[in-house]
């Protein structure tokens, strides 16, 4: 079965609460990704898919990909492919707005080619990282950054994912020393 048949960047179909299993599965996948990122600092698509397919539910690769696609479209997860963040908003905007220049068209074509290649072929999933969107309030980020500087010296960048990754690394270093 070709995974590309299951890529749908439109809006998810409403179920009107008749079938709760799909929404339960979405929540389960989201919780697993959240836990995975918290424990490993990042989540690679191939590892998450392998973990989900080994669960007692025995989900197919296509079903797992459908669930990840819905989470992506709902802006609950983002993908990073070869160091470049892929946001659902950017994908939707690219499809909904007209392309006015040849260079912009070529840029979009190249980007979508990489996305299509990496997401449609399970062998390429090891190149795709799953990240959670940055949602912490700015005041919390500033306080966490200042606390990190007091405890560890410099904590690096100010983005939520980078700050979180650096703080975890410093805390693990303390834990190993203890």
TL;DR?
This protein has 178 residues and is an alpha+beta fold. The protein contains seven helices and four strands. A four-stranded antiparallel β-sheet has the order 1-4-2-3.
Describe the fold and architecture:
The chain is α+β, with helices and mostly antiparallel strands and 178 residues long. Helices cover 58% and strands 7% of the residues. β2 (78-81) and β3 (84-86) form a beta hairpin. The N and C termini lie far apart (50 Å). The mean pLDDT is 77.
Task: Compute the number of strand runs.
Answer: 4
Largest sheet data: 4 strands, antiparallel
Q: Work out the strand percent.
A: 5-15%
Oligomerization status of the protein chains: single chain
Outline type: globular
- Rg on CA atoms, Å: 19 Å
SS field, number of helical segments = 7
User: Which consecutive residue ranges, at least 5 long each, have pLDDT under 50?
Assistant: none
First-last Cα distance: 50 Å
* Mean of all residue-level pLDDT scores: 77
Q: Give the helix level as a range of percent.
A: 55-70%
Major sheet: arrangement of strands: 1-4-2-3
Summing up helix and strand content along with how strands pair, one would put the structural category as alpha+beta
Q: Give the H and E element order.
A: HEHHEEHHEHH
